[in-house]
Amino acid sequence: MILFRPVGTEELKLIRESGNKRFPPRFPEQPIFYPVLNEEYAIEIASKWNAVYNADHKGYVTRFEVDDDYVSRYETHIVGSTRHEELWVPSEELEEFNDNIKGQIEVTQEFGP
Q1: Using a CB cutoff of 8 Å and minimum separation of 24, what contacts does 76-79 make?
Q2: Could you give the 3-state DSSP secondary structure of residue 50?
Q3: Longest dimension (CA), the chain
Q4: Nearest residue to 16 via CA among 98, 102, 101, 105
Q5: 3 state DSSP class of 75
Q6: What number is the average pLDDT over the span 7-29?
Q7: CATH for 2-111?
Q8: How many whole angstroms separate alpha carbon 37 and alpha carbon 54?
Q9: Which of 17, 80, 101, 104 is the most core-located residue (most Cβ within 10 A)?
Q10: Other beta carbons within 10 Å of 11
């Protein structure tokens, strides 16, 4: 399954440090890792949230593929309009999720000054 994740500069730096293979662990106040199911929604978050509220005013959209059988265990959640589709991966399962990423995490969009 192809998924997307809007990220800020700090998270992108950690992704790059992993060789573009892994998402970094969540902070204690982040119990869920939520990749999104469509690029349009990821663009909305990266451009209207990350690029506005992050210290450097930059936001990025990442694209990656996860093994279909593995990712099928996660339920899709609609968190707004029908295009606001997310998977909710408990933070304690992020390492296993990362192990099921096929290929590399790539940046498809960049927003900011």
Answers
A1: 76/37
A2: helix
A3: 39
A4: 105
A5: coil
A6: 95
A7: 3.20.170
A8: 23
A9: 101
A10: 17
Tokens of 98: 């990362």
> DSSP readout, 22-42?
-PPPPPTT--EE--BS-HHHH
Q: What pLDDT score does 80 carry? A: 79
66-92 confidence digits (pLDDT tens): 999 999 999 899 887 778 899 999 999
Domain ranges of the chain: 2-111
Residue 99 one-letter amino acid: D
Residue given tokens 């990025």 in the structure block = 60
Query: Which tokens sit at 75?
Result: 């339920």
- Contact status, residue 89 vs residue 35, Cβ threshold 8 Å: yes
